[in-house]
Structures are given as structure tokens and as C-alpha cells.
């Protein structure tokens, strides 16, 4: 029973980890918490359906088109909103991200309708028994895709100059600019990568949830995972997502299924009160 729960929880935890990574990347690089990020997750999934139903391409090609479109969307958000607001107050930038998310959500509601749309699984959703555990190929595909993405991000940040430049700019943008890093280009790459992660997360989670304009509420789970792991830590975002998935599964199985979704809010409040820096974050001292 416990082993089955842990295996099942990995699917949700992997998606939470992807969303948390997007939050952490944007926050570390630009100092902004993107409150419209959940709507980008939803928008990415809808892009696949738009490509299928209105362009008439097959599912695999629709996914590729959605990924490319999401990268363009991330670049557009940075160029149209973030660059003009780079010297604005933090509140103004937060309101801008909220407005972006609201615009995406309401456009989907107007163009695609408020009703739910079916979304195909990457693999079969029928369970298969392996070693006494019931494994779902569609869920294994989600975990596999997330593992590949995490490995790719690790290699990108650790082995490439562009990745190291992003880490340097996230750590100290002034110092990075002094050693020749083009911080503006780094910020552009961050928005593109974060938008790409949002679309991948949307494609993976849409078959498991109801794909509607309000599906972006799942970003609350990703935000909680980012806070739990430490909002300044990329590895912490991954651990936070997986841990949140496990805690949700255990709560639903051993306490009450009614409390399964509430656990995210309870964890968020508890972390803020007890350890605001998260599991892997560190307290920052700021001179005022």
C-alpha cells in the first residue's frame, strides 16, 4: 500500500517540480514572482489543442508548435512588459504578471469557451501490474519526460557558458555584468526557458486534470513546492515538488481525501512561519 502510494505520488510531484522550477528561475533571475505563471501552464496545453483543431496538424507536431509558440510568448512578455518595467517598483511588476495571467486566461475563455476539453495522454492510461505494483504507462511517461528535462537543465547550467552566465546573473547581476555577462540577454533566456517549462508542465498535467481556463490553479502547488524547497534553490524546487506530491498522497490515503488539496496551503503557511527560507534556502542579510 505504502509503496503504491509513493509510486503514484511521483507523477504529481514531478509536475509540481517543473512548475516550481519556473517560479524559482524567474524569481532568481528577475526578482519577480510571476503570479500569472499558472495561466501560462494552461495556455501551453491549449496551444496544442489549437494547433490540432485549427491548424490540423497531428498530436506530435502540435506539441512541437506549442513549445515553439511558448518560447516566443516568453520572449514577448520579457520584451513588451519586463523591459519597460525593469526600473519600476516591485509592486508594479507583480501587478504586471498578474495582468498577463488574467489576460491569457480570459482570452482562452473567450476563444476556446469555458467548458473542459479532452486532452490525449502521451501513453496508455490503462494500469499494468509490475512486481505487485500497478503502474500506469501514461504516468511513467510524465516522470520520464520530467527526468529528461531535469537532466537537460543540469547539463545546461553546469556545462554551458550560457547556463553558467544565468547562474552568475541570478547570484549577482551587477558582478555578472562587470565580468562581461549580458544580463539583458540572460533575462530573456530565463523567460524563454521558464515559459517552455510551463508549457511542458501543462501538456503533462492536462490529461490528468480538467483542461479548462481555470486549470492554472495548479500553480499554487508549484508555488508551494518552490517555497518548501527554498525560493532561491533550483534543486530545492525539485525536492519540494516531489515531497509535496508524497505528502498529498499520504494525506489523502491516511487522513482524508477532502484534505488532500488543503495540505498545500497548510505547508505554505507552516514554512512561512517556521522556516521562511525553505529546506534548501539560506537567510539573506540586507543592509538598510
Automatic annotation (TrEMBL):
InterPro entries referenced in this protein's UniProt entry, alphabetically: ABC_transp_permease (IPR001851), BCAA_transport_permease (IPR052157)
Protein name: Branched-chain amino acid ABC transporter permease
Record field: transmembrane: 6-25, 61-83, 90-112, 132-157, 186-209, 262-285
Gene Ontology BP term (one): amino acid transport
Family matches, as PANTHER family: ABC TRANSPORTER PERMEASE PROTEIN (PTHR11795:SF450), BRANCHED-CHAIN AMINO ACID TRANSPORT SYSTEM PERMEASE PROTEIN LIVH (PTHR11795)
Pfam families registered for this protein in UniProt: BPD_transp_2
Membrane topology: Multi-pass membrane protein
